[in-house]
Structures are given as C-alpha cells and as structure tokens.
Amino acid sequence: MCLAIPMRIEAIDGFSARCSAAGVEREVNLFMLQGQMVVPGDYVMVHVGYAIQKVAPQLAEESRQLHQQMRSQEPDDA
C-alpha cells in the first residue's frame, strides 16, 4: 500500500521544495511535477520524498483529517 501525505510548499529552489505538514518540514523533490506550475503556498501529495501530485487546499485538508482519524484508531501497541 502506498501512502502520500499532503504538504504545503513553503519555498522552491529548482526541483527542490521545502514543504511542511503538521509542524514538520521536509525537503521534497519536484521532478515528477515538472510539467505543472507550482508555487509557494500550493499543496502537493508527497510520497517517499517526491511530490507526486498537486492538490487543491480543500483536498489536502480532507486528506490530513482522514490520516488523523486513522491514526487515532490505531491500537496503542502498533
């Protein structure tokens, strides 16, 4: 199963972006989105360090809420 996390682009330097989600910042590779226009403030789905899709802010928020809900239902020993 693949899991992508919605992250907000904070800054871009070539094919590299500093992105944030839930107070965590990561360097993310934008190479897979080179045909799309992305700017700071946009949201992208990130999988293993690569932005794989640009998403609307509403979809990013819905995805974040779903991830949070799934985590809250995990058993304590997971």
Strands of the largest sheet, in order across it? Answer: 3-2-1-4-5
Helix content estimate = 10-25%
Our estimate of the beta-strand percent is 35-45%
- Counting helices, strands and paired strands, the structural category is alpha+beta
Architecture overview:
With 78 residues, this protein is of the alpha+beta class. It has one domain (5-72): Roll (SH3 type barrels). It has one helix spanning 57-72, and strands spanning 5-13, 16-21, 24-29, 43-47, 50-55. It has a five-stranded antiparallel beta sheet with strand order 3-2-1-4-5, with helices on one face. A hairpin with a 2-residue loop joins strand 4 (43-47) and strand 5 (50-55). It is elongated. The model has no long low-confidence stretch (mean pLDDT 91).
Could you list some keywords that capture this structure?
elongated, SH3 type barrels, alpha+beta, 1 helix, single chain, 78 residues
Quick structural summary:
This protein is α+β, with helices and mostly antiparallel strands and 78 residues long. The chain is built from one helix and five strands.
